[in-house]
Fold:
Amino acid sequence: MTSAQVIDHKGNKVREVELDKDVFGLTPNKGLMHTALVRQLANARAGSANTKTRSEVSGGGKKPWRQKGTGRARAGSIRSPLWEGGGVAFGPKPRDYSKKLNKKMRVLAVKSALSARSGNLVVVDNFDSIKEGKTKEFAQVLKSTKLADKKVLLVIEYSNEHSLLVERSARNMEWVKVVHVGNLNVKDLIEAEVILLTEKGLDTINKRFQKGAKGEAQTPAKPKAAKKEAGEKKAKAAKPAKESKSKDKGEAKDEAPKAKKTTKKSES
Structure:
């Protein structure tokens, strides 16, 4: 099992913490990570680009000149894409670029990215040195931990009000991006040179992505077999009722002829 060093806000080593092998010890699935990245970039597109076709451009109801005899090329409308100020042929129109990806695949893609970047983790015991939420405070933390010249991804867990102060002190810095634990994504994990988080944030990630957690969809317990068992139980429950009905009908048939014989004797 891999481990990471825990440092304080001054950059001094405090202890080591073990990383969960189910989250940080996987063999990265590069193909799935690429699919998740393409999906994320596609879903970020607005898709609002719009151009006017020849039917949407104003003017041009009249034929510019007669068909023959002028020596010029034929023209039917000034709204033609060949004319300046005319419509656009095959231009972009508003569309939806979003793509879908199964939940298990999304979770595995993030876990693959975490495993691929496990060597770039920097775990801090706490951010108690940040008390006012000012940028200079977080800049001093980066300077003390020798991360001032690197692209940092700060992973925060909003467990208390102090987390908001840490976010406020870091969000204005150019090379620092702040992300909540629940919003971890492949793009930010790949682009960052350093992933900075606290011990509580690391525990939250482990609980969120380890096997059987709520963040990961659990495998269903063979629904087909359950349906078969339910069908067999219904069949068994229905058989005695049918047999009892058939017995009742048989008894009724047996009683009917006896009644007829008694009537004949009485008549005689």
